[in-house]
Amino acid sequence: MKLVLETRNINKHFYKPKDFHVLKDISFGIQPGEFTSIVGKSGCGKSTLLYILSTMDTEYTGELYLNDQLITGKSNEELSRIRNRHIGFVFQFHYLLAEFSVLENVMLPAKKLGEKSLEEIEHDAQEKLKMLHIGHLAQQRASRISGGEKQRVAIARALINNPTILMGDEPTGNLDSQNSENVFNIFKNLAQEKGLSLLVVTHDNDFAKRTDRIIEMEDGSILK
Ligand SMILES: Nc1ncnc2c1ncn2[C@@H]1O[C@H](COP(=O)(O)OP(=O)(O)OP(=O)(O)O)[C@@H](O)[C@H]1O
């Protein structure tokens, strides 16, 4: 089956303050519609790996493929476009623009991509908000909604360009248990019903246990 994301022998060192082999021969693939969590003790290299997978960090050896396309070695301009087009990202903190409306926040990545008219983008953004049951918040200022609602807006924003993979770095890290459950269910539905692939770094074992697959890291390696 075609892989949405694949790594082949990714290695990374930090050279300051001294040589530190932070990622060791990381090789794995993610299939369409697969919901995967990455777990491991603090400092084992999860965020460093996610930074590479999301194409933000290019200082590594080995190969990264997205949709069978070799990503390693591309220019920053190409990477920025690939990222915007194919990867949605949800963080622990939502990074919404506080003074903008919910709708405007969701529309931003599509405006940046520049492939659709403003009317189409607005329509798509409304659809994403409805899908996440926050359509009624479209005109609210982002600063005026609850933490759980903000995270759903951040998910809508991550989905606006219909990415092939959604990545999360502790997406429930700042939420109470009810809102964490909501986010888990949203992700599960996206995988099952829309065939979206999800890759989530989490410290939350209850969350990880219910994903399709757990990748466990230790000291920069994947435990087999
Ligand atoms: N820029 C850097 N320079 C040197 N060492 C770094 C740098 N960034 C991270 N590290 C080290 O690399 C290791 C892996 O860090 P990373 O943030 O990937 O871990 P993590 O598994 O995501 O941890 P956590 O669960 O606490 O977020 C840690 O020992 C960290 O101190």
From TrEMBL:
GO terms for molecular function: ATP binding; ATP hydrolysis activity; transmembrane transporter activity. Pfam families: ABC_tran (PF00005). GO terms for cellular component: membrane protein complex; plasma membrane. Gene3D superfamilies: P-loop containing nucleotide triphosphate hydrolases. It comes from the Bacteria. Residues 5-223 form the ABC transporter domain. The keyword Glycosyltransferase does not apply. Keywords: ATP-binding, Nucleotide-binding, Transport. Belongs to the ABC transporter superfamily. Macrolide exporter (TC 3.A.1.122) family. This is ABC transporter ATP-binding protein. It comes from Maribacter algicola.
